[in-house]
Amino acid sequence: MEEQSAQARWEQRTQRPLMALAVAFAVAYAVPIVDSSAGKTLTVGCTAVEWVVWAAFAVDYMVRLALAEQRKEFVRTHWLDLCAVVLPLLQPLRLLRLVSTLLLVQRRARMASQIRLTTYVAGAVVGLLMFGSLAVLSVERESPDGNIRTLGDAVWWSFTTMTTVGYGDHAPTTGLGRMIAVGLMLSGIALLGVVTANIAAWFIARFEKDDVEERRQTEAIRVLTEEVRALRAEVAALREGSVSR
């Protein structure tokens, strides 16, 4: 068995801790938005957790870059990871930390061989729905003309936006909210397309498996029939020989 590279060993060992940090980021991001009356201490603590999680993923990228056998090729093929690492440093907005951390989590999760595609896509859909709701609520709640003022309104809006239903009963009114809407639309269409393709692939694989099993059984019956015919021929030959004697 071929020995794993140092980069592969690092990715395997850090997979679960980084996913646990991603959950911590989700909680830290959600708490100040859901609880608008949260005190300054709690808000600052949640912000610190967000930066720590982003820093952990940034360090993970740098370590993987250092361990890569061909670093130029690594940067070329992981340019989106690099953008996600640099993005919050250019303009440390909370929303940029959300976007960059989601990108890093997504790219890192896809490296895990033990995570099945269906599980990953389902988790991505739920995560996108949750973070889209929280993000739009955080920018629309204080808007004078906004109509997304509760978490329920935000979740409903995100769900109808991701599924491209778009009832129009709730809609962002700020520029930043509309940017979030565009991102949610594009991401939702892409993810739902993957879900549909994955379901179709499952059915196709199932039908192919059934077809292979049916062909195997048919072949077994054919072989058995040939053996019975040969056995009958031998019995007939033996009978003719006994009669001739």
Automatic annotation (TrEMBL):
Residues 214-241 form a coiled coil. The chain crosses the membrane at residues 17-34, 117-137, 179-205. GO terms for cellular component: voltage-gated potassium channel complex. It is found in: Membrane. It is a multi-pass membrane protein. One of its GO terms (biological process) is action potential. Residues 129-203 form the Potassium channel domain. Gene3D superfamilies: 1.10.287.70, Voltage-gated potassium channels. Chain C. Keywords: Coiled coil, Ion channel, Ion transport, Membrane, Transmembrane, Transmembrane helix, Transport. Its main location: membrane. The keyword Ribonucleoprotein does not apply. It comes from the Bacteria. GO terms for molecular function: voltage-gated potassium channel activity. This is Two pore domain potassium channel family protein. It comes from Streptomyces luteolifulvus. The lineage of its organism: Bacteria, Bacillati, Actinomycetota, Actinomycetes, Kitasatosporales.
